[in-house]
Amino acid sequence: MLWYSIQEKYSRKCINMGNRKSLVIVESSTKAKTINKYLGGGYTVKSSMGHLIDLPKSRLAVDVQDDFRPDYITIRGRGKILNELIKEAWKSEMVYLAADSDREGEAISFHIKNALEKNNHNAIIKRIVFNEITESAIQEAIQNPRNIDISLVNAQKARRILDRLVGYSLSPLLWEKVKKGLSAGRVQSVALRVICEREDEIECFIPKEYWTIEAEFRKGRKFFKARLIRFNGEKIEISTEEQADIILDSVKNEEFIVTAVDEKIRKRKPPAPFTTSKLQQAGGIKHRFPSFKTMIIAQQLYEGINLEGGPVGLITYMRTDSVRVSASAQNEARKFILENFSKEYIPDVPNIYKNKKGSQDAHEAIRPTSVLRTPQAVKSNLTKDQFKLYTLIWERFITSQMSKAELKQVGVDIKADGGLFRANGQTVIFDGFLRVMKQGDNTDEKALPDLRVGEILKPVIIEKEMHYTEPPPRYTDATLVKFLDESGIGRPSTYAPIITTLINRYYIERKERQFKPTFLGKLTNGILIKNFSELLSIEFTANMEARLDEIAEGKLNWVKLLDDFYFPFIETVEDARKKLEDFRGITDEETDYVCEKCGKNMMKKLGRYGYFLACSGFPDCRTTMSLPLGKCPESGCDGYIVERKPRKKRKFYGCSNYPECNFTIRDMPSSKNCPKCGCIMIQKSISGGEKNLVCLKQGCEHTEPLEEDIKNKVMLKV
DNA sequence: CAGTGAGCGAGCTTCCGCTTGACTT
After folding, report:
1. In this structure, is the CB of residue A400 within 7 Å of any atom belonging to strand B?
2. Residues A272, A319: Cα–Cα separation, whole Å
3. Cβ within 7 Å of strand B: which of A 601-620?
4. Helix A495-504 and helix A291-303: axis angle, to 10°?
5. Contact A367/A393 with Cβ under 8 angstroms?
6. Is the pTM of this model over 0.70?
7. pLDDT tens-digit series, residues A156-174
8. What domains appear along chain A, each with residue ranges and CATH number?
9. Which is it for strands A92-97 and A21-26: parallel, antiparallel or unpaired?
């Protein structure tokens, strides 16, 4: 066998087996289906469904003493897929590794190639890349196969091992000092950090009173407002009512004269088509979807919706950091705009958007697979949420290919003795892309009447108004993802899981769509920041990425990056281990519940499945019970309402005396009883807005606002 | 729109990044 060259093997097989197929391996099964359509007869297309080879979960598996030699294994549960690929490769002359054209895709390809070679078959294995799924792009890729880019693989390896070293060193430190099961990592701990720091800012914030003065005028039918911006030539800051009154008195009987009319024409560019981050932001802001929900719906649209002619993937791949679109899609959009609007709505030069720095650009932007499938045309085949998200994606893409809007912005100065008022207005000269993005910029309301310099106006009313400065807002799914994306921390496929992880660890809570750190989250963050502040900074990842790029270009050895990082790092970990005090048990809280068996007080503890009550006599007494959230309202029942979470189903609240008592309820009960009838109060959001406390009893109707500190409290013992 | 229903406390947790189906570890 040894003396056969690859070529000889190749030709020998051709003779023996006749025409054998080529195998193409991609990452996702939906992609495999589409590509299969384009390639036809001589090709089999299979998908790896992501990574198949990785570090084992159960141990570090990195030999730091031996140049960080990793011990890779086949990921549990993925052996079947790998074997299938090997089997398929046996039947093929050629294997094209067509995973995504980025760092991770190169590594996936490399690992598959190794596995195929270990199982000594004879196919020729090549790497191909394309970053849009069109017939021509795929054909071109097949014509230009290359070898694995080992430098790119090394960059991925360095990234993977660094993340493993960080995660598997910091997490055990937390188990030892705080609580088992906790976690820390290069990405999640930065996310936790900014959430905690924002909370600190909010806690430290002292609202300051300030005043504004506004005059309202009328000309013809049009009312408009102007705000005082200067007084006696100076910028104003009115901090007390007395000051406001002094100014008000001095201007109110004066003549108001227009002293300047400043007109500017501004062009507004349409936004780029969606990346994952921007889609999650829009889904959160426009429809209040949490990130994971946006992604689940996007996945459904991508995988295929049943239309009249069968299942159709409505959108391109939903995990991307690119705003690039294929030329064919762009042309289709331009044609659509021309046919449905007019020539003026297509820009002379097609709109091209720049990718963010550091973008891996393996996939196109998220766009409809065909603009001809308008939201209205497919509405009847979509669920409400699918329709909402598809509309967002479709409109965003179409507008991205439309002309700029032209807006006239008018600033008018109005003087009254020492006071200078400013009115701002805006009118649309040409709506351009705003024609499709109807929401938001209905600018007719913002228009000012025609005003000329020297004109004298009579105010309808002049008012002072008190305000308070406000603290910065808490992070939401949308703003956290925006932060991560803009900082280059995490990837499109991880934004949503990061949030889930922080919530699952009980580091943060989502309340009214905002993230609030828990006590555990603050404590953990405090420990991490005190000891690893540089590692958990935005700059660390930025710097790491820059060095990974050097590795990818072959300018830096991957071991060197890890050497430079690891040894100082692990010393810091050891230092921290020595000097850190023991916080174990600090999150446990004593309650006034008494253990039924031994009479000792019960503690509120955080377990694997959430909070629960346990006897403080542990380990002598091992009594536990679910958190009582309120008294069971069934007459004659002495049970408590506790949370129940059936697997894969929505949680609900039921009586602890089940099955003797089968009282259940959907809304979260509270520890408070109705002052009118004594029944328990539940937390209900009134018409989708703020949560209120509502009496459960039919016909009682008693309602009161929900105070922050009883939202999640254990029922008080009576 | 219904109806949904462990036990957590001891051996093992944990990272980030690719992807989807899914049992008894």
Report:
1. no
2. 16
3. 603, 605, 607-610, 612, 614-615, 618-619
4. 140
5. yes
6. yes
7. 999 999 999 999 999 999 9
8. 2-148 (3.40.50.140), 168-205+473-579 (1.10.460.10), 209-269+405-468 (2.70.20.10), 276-400 (1.10.290.10)
9. parallel
